[in-house]
């Protein structure tokens, strides 16, 4: 009975409470250039996937650089998350803002550390930031033929 109540809490109550909400969290871990672990004010650990971007995978070119850049922006800091939804892995998809209010997605795109995830987002500022980074050959755009993370995942799915 107790396990059933805990399961209900974890899989129903927490997602409902976090859906489309804005709150502050302390960043305690960086998984890669678009995902991090944080602790909320109730001391619950959450996994956040940053909205609007797709960063290189860990084993992909610029994967470590992207992770390091995200870490320099938010690790150990209290940030604001504006949760939009939850993905099939249980991560909260959220806009993320630095302590001084900067949009983390936009910063990652401007630095050339992520792709604009146009499959799920059509924010003009994000598109323009990626195009500018491409033109200036910043970050991953320095490579002659950078591979999008969604293509990298597809290619490596069968290995």
General description of the model:
By secondary structure, this protein is α+β, with helices and mostly antiparallel strands. It has one domain: OB fold (Dihydrolipoamide Acetyltransferase, E2P) (Beta Barrel). It is about 35% helix and about 25% strand. The protein has 5 helices and 7 strands, in the order H-E-E-E-E-H-E-E-H-E-H-H. The chain has helices spanning about 1-20, 65-75, 105-110, 125-135, 150-155, and strands at about 20-30, 35-40, 45-50, 55, 80-85, 90-95, 115. It has a 5-stranded mixed β-barrel. The protein has a two-stranded antiparallel sheet with strand order 4-7. Strand 1 and strand 2 form a beta hairpin. Helix 3 (about 105-110) packs parallel to helix 4. The longest helix has 17 residues, at about 1-20. The radius of gyration is 16 Å and the shape is globular. The N and C termini lie far apart (about 40 Å). The model has no long low-confidence stretch (mean pLDDT about 90).
Fill in the keyword field for this structure.
single chain; 159 residues; alpha+beta; OB fold (Dihydrolipoamide Acetyltransferase, E2P); five-stranded mixed beta barrel; two-stranded antiparallel sheet; 5 helices; 36% helix
Short overview:
With 159 residues, the chain is of the alpha+beta class. The chain contains five helices and seven strands. Strand 1 and strand 2 (35-40) form a beta hairpin.
Poorly predicted parts: none
Largest sheet: 5 strands, mixed, barrel
Q: Which strands sit side by side, in order, in the main sheet?
A: 1-2-3-6-5
CATH class: Mainly Beta
As for the number of domains, it is 1
β-sheet strand percentage: 25-35%
Overall outline: globular
The number of strands is 7
Distance between the termini: 41 Å
CATH topology: OB fold (Dihydrolipoamide Acetyltransferase, E2P)
Would you tell me the overall average pLDDT?
90
Task: Tell me the radius of gyration.
Answer: 16 Å
Give the count of helical stretches.
5
What class would the helix/strand composition place it in?
A: alpha+beta
Give the fraction of residues assigned to helices: 25-40%
Return the string of H and E elements: HEEEEHEEHEHH
CATH architecture: Beta Barrel
């Amino acid at each position: 009975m107790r396990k059933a109540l805990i399961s209900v809490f974890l899989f129903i109550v927490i997602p409902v409470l976090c859906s489309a909400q804005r709150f502050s969290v302390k960043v305690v871990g960086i998984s890669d250039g678009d995902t991090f672990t944080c602790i909320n004010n109730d001391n619950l650990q959450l996994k956040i996937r940053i909205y609007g971007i797709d960063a290189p995978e860990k084993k992909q070119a610029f994967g470590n650089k992207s992770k390091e850049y995200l870490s320099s922006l938010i690790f150990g800091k209290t940030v604001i998350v504006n949760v939009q939804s939850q993905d099939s892995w249980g991560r909260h998809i959220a806009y993320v803002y630095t302590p001084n209010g900067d949009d983390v997605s936009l910063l990652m795109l401007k630095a050339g550390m992520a792709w604009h995830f146009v499959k799920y987002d059509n924010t003009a500022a994000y598109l323009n930031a990626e195009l500018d980074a491409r033109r200036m050959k910043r970050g991953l755009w320095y490579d002659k033929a950078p591979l999008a993370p969604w293509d990298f995942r597809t290619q490596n799915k069968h290995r």
